[in-house]
Write a structure and sequence with these properties.
Two copies of one chain form a homodimer.
Chain A lengths: L11 H4 L10 H9 L3 E4 L11 H8 L15 H12 L10 E4 L1 H13 L5 E6 L4 H8 L3 E6 L11 H5 L6 E7 L11 H14 L2 E5 L24 E6 L12 E4 L3 H13 L5 H6 L1 H5 L1 H24 L5 E2 L7 E5 L5 H10 L6 E4 L1 E2 L13 E5 L4 H21 L3
Parallel strand pairs in A: 1-11, 3-4, 3-5, 5-6, 6-7
Antiparallel strand pairs in A: 2-8, 7-8, 9-10, 10-13, 12-13
Helix pairs in contact in A: 5-6, 5-9, 12-14
Chain lengths: 405, 405
């Protein structure tokens, strides 16, 4: 027996998890509200767009007296609804190719666990959705960033530049498409590059397609459509954005690779099941998806145009007009956007109103990048969004007048 | 650049996850049903007891047009309902001491991630709920089993025997109380031993108290009640069994250790939130818990008595009358209970009926143990449960008449 005399310590992997950069300003927001200031929140992808009524109607029709576990592989009718949904993209899944999950977050976790061991590497384009940092920490893997730039619309570097980052520890490449936080979408050439790299180097493609339908001038796509990477692709999906219901916590993980899906099912069994009521509620939406996603996307397109028209006329601001998702990144004429966000919440108001945006630094993995960038989530109705943009404009003027940078 | 020329392989940690021993016989059950045989299922803790009506009534009253993310720390009113619930046990939690989770499974995952790094050890009494094996595999930790025995009612060994297993890698001791699968509950002396060990060796106590209220002759307790291990205890809970609604996927993780809860909150942020509708639906149940749990526990007690009265008169069968939860383990006069389960599903019927039970071997970590044991979950109404027990009796007779072991 060896006595463990160390203190009761938190694990190193837990220490390595950063607090959500999107959620950490909450105390300042509450303080501003306490001072009577109205805060227009464009910081988080929690949209004001209502979920289609059929969702709650269906949940309310649930008349079983029991709320039993769903199968780990999903309520059968729900899983069939996902299969029907994927047919819209000419993707023919069998039941063993897809498992409903608790949001896309769980789908990402399952995919990372299925393809990596501790110490393995996963490549990811930065800036990226920061939950990937936390997932990498708790799964003990190393993220290898490939930096993109607002100035060229977050275009991917060429194949050789990407392949340079591959080591014998590299297991997968994460592709968020359409992208959170950049709002960019991959063009055909970029998709071909990713597929070639995955094929040549035996890498998995973790295709996070949460925002699949929210594209403004192109057709929605999926990496599952490409037969040449049939065994490489693991598609990670969510109902949260396409049907505007993030609190329903329903997503899915899909792959044509039978070994991967066998492993994912075993992992899914550990946590038993995704919530039963929401699986039922989602059946009509997934079965008739385009009807709902078209309307939601049309609204986001209008909002995108509002946000960009404001940003484009703001002196010293650089932004790349997004092609999809519900975010835009803007480079501001400030040296530290986190300080600017704090200024907006703590020291600024215009007629007792202010705006909350998100600094982008924590969306980068490489330290020092993104310090002067912000993300705007266009999650408010058009009238409020215009107000938020006016407040941002006035806030920036005011900040620059007192901070000479 | 090093080219990764290996094939597209599943990770080792995923390979190490075993399929659920409770769910793996499903194909045989479906085949039996196809042959017209009615299968009485006492294999899984998915009870026929209805959820209290107030749950679905409350969900159906939800009238927000949005299904927004809940806070990662939980819907405020839901978290307050948990705090009120814990006051029943004289446990005074503050909001920062508790976070709602997606079932107890997520609470266990968060606790393991918060206290262990890969290679660390966690002690656990065997037999135990098999999801812990899967969680250990995906979290890359080593489970160190301490074997208990049906013959003495699964009593814990003395302090020295337990402490022998501690190494400088040991971070925690898992205690499932009341226990799944044994149905045993810890007595005061056993609790004192665990608390002393945790205190002396600086170990966390992961107290899985999913079945807290389902105790037949004693008062429900929690490890959170003991001030001497205030910093050591992490309580893992679920509404699944106490309110008979496993498909709601709501649990919680609670601790007075501020560093642990800070880490757990950061981990919780990665997955955003537990489902919104069920958090609302659970508020009235958690706020007035005893009213509902008393009724449910009274029903399980009657069922426990039925199951035990059958088992006790079956020749060669050894069982320990459970004091809680909804399971009993029986040692059968067979050499391989998995083969017996297969016999019941594939080769046996009595008037076109048979019974599904669970072999216990996979609930042990030490290889070779539990081969002649089964678990019965008393999840059927009393009439059906009696039928299931008659079928088990007849099935065992029939099996023994053709298998001389």
């Amino acid at each position: 027996m060896t006595t463990n005399k160390s203190a009761l310590n938190v694990s190193s992997r837990a220490e390595n998890v950063i607090a959500s950069p999107i959620r950490k300003f909450l105390p300042m927001v509450l303080a501003a509200e306490k001072r009577g200031i109205k805060v227009f929140k464009v910081n988080v992808g929690d949209s004001d767009i209502a979920v289609p009524e059929i969702f709650l109607k269906t949940v309310k029709k649930y008349n079983d007296k029991n709320i039993k576990y769903a199968p780990s592989s999903g309520v059968i009718e729900h899983m069939q609804a996902w299969i029907k949904y994927y047919k819209n993209f000419n993707i023919e899944l069998k039941p063993e190719n897809i498992i409903p999950t608790v949001g896309c977050a769980e789908a990402i976790l399952f995919a990372i666990l299925a393809v990596t061991d501790p110490g393995d590497e996963v490549m990811i384009f930065e800036p990226f959705y920061p939950s990937y940092k936390g997932l990498a920490a708790i799964c003990n893997i190393k993220l290898v960033p490939i930096t993109l730039h607002v100035e060229n619309g977050f275009a991917l570097p060429n194949k050789e530049e990407i392949a340079k980052k591959i080591t014998n520890k590299t297991k997968a490449l994460v592709v968020i498409n359409p992208n959170n936080p950049t709002g960019s979408i991959l063009n055909e050439k970029e998709i071909a590059v990713i597929n070639q790299i995955a094929k040549e180097h035996n890498l998995f493609i973790l295709a996070d397609e949460t925002y699949r339908e929210i594209v403004f001038d192109k057709k929605p796509t999926s990496f599952l459509q490409f037969p040449e990477v049939r065994d490489n692709v693991i598609a990670l999906d969510s109902v949260s954005k396409k049907f505007s219901c993030p609190g329903a916590r329903i997503g899915s993980i899909a792959s044509f690779n039978p070994e991967i899906m066998k492993s994912v099912l075993k992992i899914a069994m550990i946590r038993l099941s995704a919530p039963t009521l929401e699986q039922f509620g989602m059946i009509p939406l997934l079965s008739n998806a385009t009807k709902y996603t078209k309307k939601i996307t049309a609204e986001y397109k209008k909002r995108r145009d509002i946000v960009c028209s404001f940003l484009q006329k703001m002196p010293g601001v650089v932004c790349s007009k997004p092609d999809g998702a519900l975010y835009v990144i803007a480079k501001l004429p400030v040296s530290n956007s986190e300080k600017f966000v704090e200024f907006l919440l703590n020291d600024f108001n215009y007629k007792n109103e202010t705006v909350q945006i998100t600094p982008v630094e924590d969306f980068y993995f490489t330290s020092g990048l993104g310090k002067n960038e912000i993300r705007i989530a266009y999650v408010l109705n058009q009238k409020d969004l215009k107000k938020a943009m006016v407040l941002l404009e006035k806030g920036l003027e005011s900040y620059l007048s007192v901070n000479k940078n």
